[in-house]
Automatic annotation (TrEMBL):
UniProt xrefs under SUPFAM superfamilies: HIT-like
Residues spanned by motif Histidine triad motif: 97-101
Family matches, as InterPro entries: Histidine_triad_CS (IPR019808), Histidine_triad_HIT (IPR001310), HIT-like (IPR011146), HIT-like_sf (IPR036265)
Domain HIT: 5-112
Organism: Candidatus Nitrotoga fabula
Top-level taxonomy: Bacteria, Pseudomonadati, Pseudomonadota, Betaproteobacteria, Nitrosomonadales
Record protein name field: Protein HitA
Length: 112
């Protein structure tokens, strides 16, 4: 996907403030944060939205949901957080590369 913003971030063509990176998934801070902590978790392989989800995506989507609380805690969200997946035009999606927003204001101070 040549002109997908998030694919450009995956390729390193557009910089981001990285939260997490592995072979399959990438997380980075939202450029317009809606809270003290606001980052996105995306699959590195392009997928427009949850509307395209099929059974074969279950392991990937499962990994994303399992990783979300770990990354949230690492960002100081120890008391919980919001997850948002805007899906399709009707769901208010603006960037058509599947992503989970992880959002929270209840940030614990970092000790040490
Ligand atoms: P959506 O409405 O599609 O769920 O949300 C897209 C999100 O991507 C928005 O919160 C917006 O601020 C964020 N965003 C758009 N372009 C960029 C970018 O170039 N870098 C980063 N880090 N976030 C972006
Ligand atoms: Zn993409």
């Amino acid at each position: 996907m040549d002109d997908c913003i998030f694919c450009k971030i995956v390729r390193g063509d557009i910089p981001c403030r990285k939260v997490y990176d592995d072979g399959e998934l990438l997380a980075f801070h939202d450029i317009h944060p809606a809270a003290k902590v606001h980052f996105m978790l995306i699959p590195k392989t392009h997928m427009d939205s949850l509307l395209e989800a099929e059974d074969s995506h279950a392991p990937l989507l499962g990994r994303m949901l399992v990783l979300a609380p770990r990354l949230a805690r690492e960002q100081g969200l120890n008391n919980g957080f919001r997850t948002v997946i805007n899906t399709g035009k009707g769901g208010g999606q603006e960037v058509f590369h599947l992503h989970i927003h992880i959002i929270g204001d209840d940030v614990s101070p970092v000790v040490g």
